[in-house]
Specification:
Blueprint: E1 18-22, H1 25-38, E2 43-48, E3 54-55, H2 60-64, E4 75-77, H3 79-86, E5 89-92, E6 94-100, E7 105-110, E8 116-120, E9 123-126, E10 130-132, H4 149-160, E11 165-169, H5 173-183, E12 188-193, H6 204-216, E13 220-223, E14 227-231, E15 234-237, E16 242-244, E17 247-250, E18 254-256, H7 259-263, E19 287-289, E20 296-297, E21 304-305, H8 310-324, E22 338-342, E23 345-351, H9 354-360, E24 365-369, E25 385-390, E26 397-404, H10 408-420, H11 445-458, E27 463-464, H12 469-474, E28 478-481, H13 485-490, E29 497-498, H14 508-511, E30 516-519, H15 524-535, E31 540-543, H16 546-555
Parallel strand pairs: 1-2, 1-9, 2-5, 9-19, 11-12, 11-17, 12-13, 27-31, 28-29, 28-30, 30-31
Antiparallel strand pairs: 3-4, 6-7, 7-8, 10-18, 14-15, 15-16, 20-21, 22-23, 23-26, 24-25, 25-26
Helix pairs in contact: 1-8, 6-16
Length: 574
């Protein structure tokens, strides 16, 4: 029941003295340490089946790649350190094999000796995380996966014998981090991804920029390709090609580790994770669950979904500790904010992608921008590609994606913060963000997205999505390139007429009645030209994101001319 301030009411049974936590790392250890700070007397036992209870699992690829040199650097806290500071009873290399809900006991078995011990709990916290997906591919047992420090040590040992070739199966966040780190060791890397693009959480016109970076650094990328079998020294694809593979890394994805919850008869959610309420309680009020194993409330749809992120697990741990200790706690939906470095490019995302919104049938509008990370007159400025997705009626921010070099992280974090605060897309224009030439521009890239969203929502600017262009041309719309002659000659949309924006007034008499689709390199001059045509009574629309976005979208198209991704390539409008 909510408390008067809207927070979750604490349990009414008082402070339990015996708390057993199954699984460490982010969710389990944040629960344990927070609870100790709130309750000095509770008996807190953490049972971890691996040999490390508190380690930086997100740093594992960089240990394999040699950037993190010592295995000990991955260990955040040892059992001895945790006992000395928090008086936590840490059991590593122990696995819980049974839960007796009626007796309030768990059975733990040593993974080293096989000996078993029964422990009694008042409150039980499940933090088993997620397990790597292992598909029924012949020979897949030869593939290495990456989940624990022990996995990383085995992979580092494999790399130490100097393999010449490696196949990474899966082009998600972990797969690309592994590809980069293996390539950094001088290994010839091939990435095999079953979907039509790398980084499936991104939309195709952003993902293609990440693929460009991989190829530029010598990685081979096979998208839309399935692995048929893994043999000694080779990988065979479904189309019959055989690729050399001294080392194979499986990074297809993860699924919630719910074996123990299923064994205990706990309810699972529609996506296969453990079902929990706003206090992270399962259908047994004395059993909580946190982290990658549970279903989270999605901040965009308000339904449950699977989101595997360390900071979300940490937040859950704190919430559960507060609730167990009798304090009010607050439930917060997850935005799925994520970021990855791929060589010299950074890709980040928050909220839903356009593809996901389209598949769900939810109305949206998109805008693309290609701003510089800081003032162009200060040395070293680099462009980024930014995409903002919002509700066409009320401007609610539904998602964002950014690919670039410097400054991607802080921009995605600003947008994630704005989403958490309930700000609309247009309000991004009003944010007062830190500015000095080495760091940003007077109009920060986030502000620019806000200005653009304002223009679209107010009707001052009607943008054309790249996938709409062919249909408009078929309907008789003419395409005008308002860039310079030199830019047009270097690459242009087929059939477009080049009239630089500065000479547009002088050529109005030769244009005809229209209507027109106007474009420039990134959309800014196109907006100026479109506004001028509107003032002169001419029907015109601006190509969203300009030639850069159109070009990326065209390169992301599959062989049949369909943009990579499920469903028809259409854009819902208000």
């Amino acid at each position: 029941m909510p408390a008067p301030d809207g927070s979750l009411a604490p349990p009414s049974t008082g402070h339990p003295k015996r708390v057993v936590i199954v699984g460490g790392v982010a969710g389990g250890m944040s629960t344990a340490t927070r609870l100790r700070r709130l309750d000095a007397d509770a008996q807190i036992t953490v049972i971890e089946r691996s040999g490390h209870v508190s380690f930086a699992n997100c740093g594992l690829p960089y240990f394999v790649g040699g950037l993190i040199e010592k295995e000990d650097d991955l260990t955040l806290q040892t059992p001895e350190q945790l006992f000395a500071r928090f008086r936590l009873d840490i059991r590593v290399n122990d696995e819980v094999v049974a839960i007796d809900r009626a007796a309030h006991t768990v059975t733990a078995r040593s993974t080293l000796s096989g000996e078993e011990e029964v422990l009694t709990y008042d409150k039980l916290v499940l933090s088993m995380g997620a397990a790597p997906v292992r598909p029924p591919i012949p020979g897949y047992d030869r593939a290495r996966t990456l989940r624990t420090v022990e996995d990383a040590a085995r992979l580092a040992s494999d790399v130490g014998v100097a393999p010449k070739t490696a196949i990474v199966i899966g082009a998600g966040f972990i797969g690309l981090e592994m590809a980069e780190n293996l390539a950094g060791q001088g290994i010839d890397v091939t990435i095999v991804e079953a979907t039509p693009q790398v980084l499936p959480p991104l939309d195709p016109e952003l993902a293609i920029l990440v693929k460009d970076e991989l190829v530029a650094h010598g990685a081979h990328v096979e998208t839309g390709a399935a692995v048929a079998s893994i043999d000694e020294g080779t990988v065979t694809l479904a189309d019959g090609r055989v690729l050399p593979a001294d080392l194979v890394v499986g990074a297809i994805g993860v699924r919630p580790d719910v074996a123990l919850a299923r064994l205990a008869g706990l309810e699972l959610g529609p996506s296969g994770g453990i079902a929990v309420n706003d206090a992270n309680q399962t259908d047994d009020p004395d059993i909580y669950a946190v982290g990658d194993a549970i279903e989270k409330s999605d901040a965009v749809s308000h339904a449950t979904s699977l989101i595997a992120l360390a900071n979300v697990a940490n937040r859950h741990g704190r919430r559960v500790a507060d609730h167990i200790a009798g304090r009010p706690s607050h439930a917060v939906g997850s935005l799925g904010t994520a970021i990855v470095k791929v060589f010299d490019v950074v890709a980040a995302t928050v909220g839903w992608s356009e593809r996901r919104l389209r598949a769900a049938g939810r109305p949206y509008r998109c805008i693309h921008s290609h701003p510089f990370d800081h003032a162009t007159y200060y040395p070293g400025a680099t462009r980024m590609a930014a995409k903002l997705i919002f509700d066409p009626t009320d401007g609610t921010i539904l998602g964002a994606q950014i690919v670039g070099g410097n400054g991607v992280d802080k921009r995605i974090d600003v947008i994630a913060t704005a989403m958490a605060a309930g700000m609309t897309a247009g309000r991004l224009a009003d944010l007062e963000l830190a500015y000095a030439p080495p760091f940003s521009s007077a109009k920060d890239p986030v502000n620019l997205l806000g200005y653009m969203a304002e223009n679209v929502l107010s009707g001052d600017c009607d943008v054309v999505a790249p996938d709409e262009l062919d249909e408009l041309v078929d309907q008789g719309w003419q395409v005008i390139d308002v860039r310079t002659d030199k830019e047009h000659a270097a690459g242009a949309i087929p059939g477009s007429v080049n009239i630089p924006v500065d000479t547009l007034r002088e050529h109005l008499g030769t244009l005809g009645a229209g209507p027109f689709v106007v474009y420039c390199e990134v959309g800014q001059r196109g907006h100026t030209a479109t506004a001028l045509l509107h003032e002169l009574g001419v029907k015109a629309r601006n190509l969203d994101g300009g030639y850069r976005t159109w070009s990326a979208s065209m390169r992301a198209r599959g062989p049949a001319g369909i943009v990579a991704g499920p469903g028809p390539v259409t854009r819902p409008v208000s």
